[in-house]
Amino acid sequence: MSYKYLLNIALLIVNLNVFSQINFEAKLSKTTLGVNERLRVEFSVNEDGDNFSPPNFTNFKVVGGPSQSIKNSWVNGNRSYSKSYTYFLSPIKIGTYSIGQATIEVEGKVYKTLPLEIKVISAVKNPNRENDPNYVSDSEIYLTSEISKKSPYLNEGFSVIYKLYFSSDIGITNWRELSSPRYADFWSQNINIDNYNIEEGTYKGRSFRYVILKKTVLYPQKEGELTIEPLSLDITVQLPTNRRDFFGQRVTKSSQKIVTSGVKKISVKQLPNLNKPKDFNGAVGSFNFVAKTSKRKLSVSEALELELEIKGNGNLKLFQLPKPSLPSSLEIYEPEKIEKISTVISGMKGSIRDLYTIVPSKPGKYKIPKIEFSYFDVKSKKYKTISSNEINIDVDGDEWNYETEKNINSKIKPKNNKLKFLPFKTKSKFVKIKTKPFFNTNVFWGLLILPFIISLLIIILMNYLNGHKKFLSTNISIKSKRLAKKYLLDAKSKLGSKNEFYESLDRALHNYLKSITLFDNSNYSKINIKKELEKRNIDPNIIEILNQLFNNCEMARYTPITNVEMESDYKTALDIISKIDKSIN
After folding, report:
1. What's the pLDDT tens digit per position in 434-446?
2. Number of other CB atoms surrounding residue 360 within 10 Å
3. Dihedrals φ, ψ of 128, to 5°?
4. Which CATH number fits the domain 462-584, given the four candidates 1.20.120, 3.40.960, 1.10.760, 1.10.287?
């Protein structure tokens, strides 16, 4: 065997080892993306493997995949093989995150990918749509933020209403917030929306259906151009297909759509300096001002209340009431503040009051000077000042001080210090009465034992009442659970009939929740149920899925639903009830 022949064999062995090396890696479509974009992650291996295990995609939602593909080819006698698993991810929030290690088994050996870092930034203007066969056109769905005033004054209230417009060809089954707008330079308050009602409207000259998702009232606290950051949503959309089911109804498919309301700019005007009152403290709106006392006549030893009240519409929580200036003989204490303010879409309205307690130290006639309150009236664009009337106070009696108290005490002393006592005689006779000792008597032992008897009776009574209450609660719980089971079976029998199925499913969930929370109908609401479940340490993910189920029941009347989705909601309801039962028990 020649030297060259041995060398060729050695080289061939080395090449075979190189070509047979296992390569398992992860690839990202991009390393930086907007919160409203999607990310493609591909895990590929150059040999056939089994038991593939993806990483836990924390801070991401899987919106597509896994899709598996295999490439196997021979070129000039050389084999090329690749097996890949592809996922499409949607980020949940802004930040820097890591895609963990995936694992696969090849010829009995486990291989792992390297972790990859991804940076998620705020929403971008034109998100990517790569490899998305279920793409929903931008002309079919819009998320808008409607602002009532784009150029308000400083401290003037305005509203932002977020609406989701969608065409009649598609249905909305669920949504979640990817990023919420932050109001750094505003005083803000959200207005609760109890029910999401679908309404008809027009947008950009076309007919749409829309849902009001959020209402917020804002009061700018800074002048100049201010920014309202966008609201971004991940929406589950039902798209119609060209296929029809056995009953002739069009088959739909689910798809994900990410929408954003876009950045909004607000130009805040400065309040005019012309004719600005010296006592102006930032009140903007339309107000009435009243000052009154609880009494006009009183004695030195009494007290009275001075009430200052402002009523109207405006930034009631963002300014202080004027302070009264009183004579030194009227001692005034720190006020009690009372607010009755409600926030509606037009802004704050109601009243604020300061109650002062005043105690006079000398008799006489006093005047509480008029009190002035100034504010900026938005309608007339002028400053206005309201003045209260002077209030006269009559205080009678003696001046209350140390000398007065000394004089009063001296009046009750006798005029002569020497007191004469007249002698007296008595014929009284003292009779010795025989008494038995109290210790060891029947009364003594009775009083000693009585507290123990009373305590025992109280314990027995409390146990009886608690047992009776528990019995009633158990009966209510058992009845509600039976109703829940009945309606669940009823819902299962109506799979395929959308409206009847979701009505039964909704009744089943409500009766079950009543059975574990024991709310009556007057106190039963989603908010109370959520609070009660949180008190019982139910997993927040379960509460969120439950809320999604309720939304599905509400939206089922307006959107097309497939039998597959109905079966999925039914299984989800069973799973939630089972998990809540395990958590409580």
Report:
1. 555 666 677 777 7
2. 26
3. -75, 160
4. 1.20.120
